[in-house]
Amino acid sequence: MNKVENDIERLLNEDHDRDISYSASGVGGLGLGGFADLVKVLGTSTKTTDKLNALVQYFASADDKDKVWVIALFSGRKPKRAVNTTQLITWCVEAAGLPGWLFGESYHTVGDLAETISLLLPETIPADQISESKPLHFYIDTFRQIEKQDESIKKQFIIESWDQMNQNERFVFNKLITGAFRIGVSQKMMVNALAKFTSLEASVIAHRISGNWDPSTTTFAELLNESPTITDYSKPYPFYLAYALDADPESLGEPEAWQVEWKWDGIRGQMIKRNNTLFVWSRGEELMTDKFPEYHSLKDVLPDGIVLDGEIIPSIDKKPLPFALLQTRIGRKNVTKKNLQETPITFFAYDLLEYNYEDWRNRPLDERRKQLQAIIEPLTTPTIILSPIVTFSKWEELTELRTTSREMGAEGFMIKRKSSTYQVGRKTGDWWKWKIEPLVIDCVMIYAEKGSGRRSNLYTAYTFAVKDGDKLIPFTRAYSGLTDKEFNEVDSFVKRNAIEKFGPVRTVKPELVFEIAFEGIAASNRHKSGVALRFPRINRWRKDKKPDEINTLDDLKQMLQVYGK
Amino acid sequence: MALIEFSDKGLCCPQGQFYIDPWKPVEKALITHAHSDHARWGSQSYLCHQYTKPLLQLRLGDNPYQTVEWGETVFMNGVKVSFHPAGHVIGSSQIRLEYNGEVWVVSGDYKVANDGLSGQFEVVPCNTFITESTFGLPIYKWKSPGQINKDIQSWVLKNKELDKTSVVIAYSLGKAQRVIQAIAEVTDKIYVHGAVYNVHQTLINAGWKLPEVHRITPETTKEELTASVVVAPPSADGSSWMKRFPNHVTGVCSGWMQVRGNARRRNVDAGFAMSDHADWPGLLQAVKATGAEKVFVTHGFQATFSRYLNELGIEAGEVKTEYGNDEEVSPLAVTDEDSIETDESVSDNPEAKTFETNE
After folding, report:
1. How many interface pairs between A and B have CB atoms less than 8 angstroms apart?
2. Coil, strand or helix: which one is A266?
3. Residue with the larger pLDDT of the pair B282 and A190
4. Same domain, A410 and A480
5. Between the CA of residue A413 and those of A322, A353, A395, B254, what are the distances in Å?
6. Residues B274-296: pLDDT tens digits?
7. Are A106 and B137 in contact (CB < 8 Å)?
8. Does residue A311 sit at the B interface (CB-CB below 8 Å)?
9. Of A450, A455, B65, B161, which has the fewest beta carbons less than 10 angstroms from its beta carbon?
10. Interface membership of B308 toward A (CB under 8 Å)
11. Do B260 and A112 make contact, defined as CB atoms within 8 angstroms?
12. pLDDT above 90 for A211
């Protein structure tokens, strides 16, 4: 026997051993099929209660190890990537006996790689038949084991696994490999489902499952044990998010009850110092400590056992620099001296969540703010400052001040009730964001691409252009802002008016005019237009305008002069 | 001169002096089946299968209709014409033309699987085959009609247990009859939307043995509808008509439900990938079985399917028609199949309601 066969033999034996241990432990009755069913309900159900019930049911009957992985997957963690996309596609078309281009056509229609593969593979187990698939964690463990192995071993594992699965299971299996588990479940819903099993509060669970933990070494009991000790010092609290204020601020009542701050356009972050170690988390729960070396010095000035909420933002002399500059920092693995000089990062602190290792979230905002001030004000470093409070006595004054937001480098105000506790997630009533009106520009659609997920097989991703003499200059892409009905209308326009095909992109007759809204504009030498927009989205479809009435490149450049700093 | 030419009015047989499924009024129209993208108003005379006639009367009113049976031969200016089962909906037929020893077959819409109502698709050997390609991608592979029926049945039963009303969305001609037959096996009373009712009654009057259904009217009470089963056309989905159902769940029967994104986009509780069109293996099977040396691919994924056929060594070309919708029939757009039911005023038109029994 040659080496490869030996290895396969050995792996199969290990599989076999594990199989025995699974069945011996008497759990894992659900297997991957149970998880696949759960994903199906979560992905297709239209009612929150149905989704919640499905989660509760799953957590009630699944293997503990699988539960840990489900929590991990649904909070954005990924298994080890054992094989790459090209390999998956190659093995799929080989098994299905199809030419590669037909895979491409299918993928463009389905809009999801894992699903495309699951639909193209020849059926070995009918969808309604119970397969003999193994528990979720078996597959994830195996991915880790075969990661460094020869391609032939990987291939054999993948193909054999496919053969033992129905289409539903293949879909989630492929999702595990391609590593993008974005299905219709929010972290909040999962937390609520878990709260039904333990005596822990939802906010505590949200805290436990956030941060830096490894699902392959963490047990379900460790993750959700009921004793209140914080075992992992790096853990952030779930962020409290504000709702947009659509009404007049007068509707909020007495101004004295409210604390107002500028709304900064940086990265929302938590700064944690525990056990004499500093951690910086983004709202996306990404640990960013190493990206911002200027923060490291804060370890020496901040008290231990503290958690701050604030904005990660480049600034000089307490004045924010454009967001585009922050982006030049985020993408980097190594920060140069030049970076540190040109775009020094500051932490604009606005809340105190933990002090002296004590959870302060249930204290009122004004008490937290007072203590925050006491901690930050004495510091002399430019790396951390207090996000200033905007003083005003009447709402009209605030309305007036709001028009100066852009000059302040802010995008409006945060309005927080002084008596508010620090809640979990987006809650209405106590915290409001009152943003300035976006900048807008009229332009024409020139390219379209199909979307993915619920927009698969519809042209919903567009590129827009402004005029420059008789030329059209593309300057931004946008994916959102139209209703489903409007997307269908545009989709049908694209299908009727496509001029050329470049892979998945269609060039379209420049006829449809849209108003694009955006939050900011910056110079960019990576774009043909010379500008990059912040948060571009479709504001409305200007059916009343013709393509020759759109804005020009000069208009954009003028905006850059005024707002681009 | 080719036996069939693709003109701006539709598929034209110059020698026979007739059109097949024309989309503009012509003198003589041969109709493959009664869906409105294939059977259009305004022609001077129509030739169709006998099962199709009452459906055309329902939709198009009174016109000079001539009917044939499957396999019966009619000569039209020297062209030998016959109709053969297409398995798509009740009465749907492929049309075979023969002249000077050359045979062409226009398949209309078809499916290879037998749904128990529409007849078994017949392989008609020919030189040139004109095929649809609505689901001409290898991702479309249907479960057997029996299995799909079981899926729908168990969904309906589960809802009943939970005291929920099941609203099954299915085209009023074709899938509605399949769904009603399947549901009748597990439930006593079936309620239907007016558009479904009209087609159903037309078929019953024509002699079809179909389960009894109840038309929903303003007088139908909430109590009657609670935990019941309702069959409605796509146009009803999301409309105010649906508001009358207490605690209802919606299940859509459509081939597009094969892809998750479509089900999510339509915001339905359940999607059943049930179609009256051939799936990918079905299309390939049909094309190969005809032995045709030349294939024309119409409405659907025609570019993809014809390219694939060419790679298999079967000469194939795309043809633009006004059937279906466009190159890529959008799963959300109202297809012509819908319009047979979207316009209730047509079916409620008293003239159109004068059914004629066929037997």
Report:
1. 95
2. coil
3. B282
4. no
5. 17, 21, 12, 48
6. 999 999 999 999 999 999 999 99
7. yes
8. no
9. B161
10. yes
11. yes
12. no
Q: Is A102–B308 a contact, with Cβ atoms under 8 angstroms apart?
A: yes
**Structurally, how many domains does chain B consist of?**
2
| Domain count for chain A | 3
Domain-terminating residue out of A435, A453, A477: A435
Indicate whether B82 and B19 sit together in one domain.
yes
Q: At what angle do helices A136-146 and A3-25 cross, to 10 degrees?
A: 150
Residues with Cβ within 8 Å of residue B128, at least 6 apart in sequence = B3, B4, B102, B103, B104, B105, B292, B293, B294, B295, B296
Measured between alpha carbons, how far is A282 from B107 in angstroms, rounded to an integer?
A: 59
Sheet with B28-30, strands from edge to edge, namely B5-7, B10-13, B18-20, B28-30, B45-49, B65-68
Supply the ipTM of this predicted assembly. 0.86
Q: Tell me, yes or no, if B313 comes closer than 8 A to chain A by beta carbon.
A: no
A chain contacts of residue B299, beta-carbon cutoff 8 Å: none
Place of tokens 């007849």: B119
Burial of residue A516, with CB atoms counted within 10 A of its CB: 0-12 exposed, 13-18 middle, 19 or more buried = buried
Place of tokens 């029967």: B253
| Domain identity same for B64 and B123 | yes
Which structure tokens are listed for A277?
A: 């170690």
Q: What is the CATH number of the domain that holds A314?
A: 3.30.470.30
| Nearest CA-CA partner of A216 in A138, A134, A161 | A138
Residue A128 domain-assigned (yes or no): yes
Whether residue B202 lies within 8 A of chain A, CB to CB, comes out as no
Whether chain A has a CB inside 8 Å of the CB on B321: the answer is no
Domain that holds residue B98: 5-140+276-328
Q: What is the average per-residue pLDDT within B89-94?
A: 96
Q: Do A454 and B332 touch (CB under 8 A)?
A: no
List the CATH number of the domain containing B180: 3.40.50.10890
CB atoms within 10 A of CB A217: 8
Locus of tokens 């479960």: B143
Of B139, B264, B269, the CB nearest to A120: B139
Whether residue B149 is found in the same domain as residue B236? yes
Do both B13 and B49 map to the same domain?
A: yes
pLDDT of residue A328: 76
